[in-house]
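Reopening this ticket.

The earlier resolution said the output was attached, but the attachment link was broken on my side. Pasting everything inline this time so it's all in one place.
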Amino acid sequence: MNQALAKDVEDAVAPPIGRPRMTRRRVLANAAALLGASLAATGGYAAAIEPQSLVVTRYAPNPRGWPAGRKLSITVIADLHAGGPDMRLPHVQRIVDTAIALKSDLVVMLGDYIARYRFAIERIPDPVWAAELARLTAPLGVWAILGNHDWWYDLAGVRSALADVRIPVLENQAVMLGAEGERFWLAGIGDQIAYRLGHGRFRGVDDLPGTLAQVTTDDPVILLAHEPDIFARMPSRVALTFAGHTHGGQIRVPVVWRFFVPSKYGARYAYGHVVENDRHLIVSGGLGTSIIPARLGVPPEIVHVVLGA
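Inline output:
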């Protein structure tokens, strides 16, 4: 090959002037920059955008213990965690407005009304978030139970706030609701990890046998529990159990998220409609956040259930 031809070939394969040669190091550097930007964008979404969203998740279960054709609509609010960077008062107001628009026969609230983090946050006083929840109405009432955060951080304040707005709290109690021929029992149990004993040990104030002993007729039973773990020993006498606490995992990163669900059963009762041996459980993904103020893959939700549809 003569020198002129060799020069033409070199010019043909060389990168244009001003464009750097693509080396392995440059490829890796670009990939790292892209990954960093992607992680930053994902983190920003998880911290600033998804926690401010709101969805209504609908279920129409058919539990064996619920009479066919007996229609009942239920709105479920779980894990409000009012306060912090992602559950300020306007967001609480939007949640309540959305719940009111569902016009359900019954509204139930599953505990954890307040937010607590290791860093300074904007707090919503107990009477303020309670006043918003007091706007909720339903023909069969608005009923509440308490969660572990209520017990750990502000038990007296939460109790007082709910009492002041006349929202009854069920603690190991069962009440009969509904008109003649459409009656059912609504039961609520105490929190299962109310007292922190240290080294990952807890003592609960739940009394499932004592609560169900108050059920004195054959009418169906709906049970409210903050943590879903109690479902493992729930008798078939209970037609439907509602629970929260897990936030659906809160950060649902593929493969690893299930190991961070706050349940000794891992992903078994992490989220959604669970059926075991004809027993039905619905676990809400909740509304607020805990430990870190971020959500990813499990947006804040109000649960709307229709039985007997």
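Reporter confirms the inline version is readable. The chain has seven helices and 13 strands. Residues 4-20, 27-45 have pLDDT under 50 and may be disordered.
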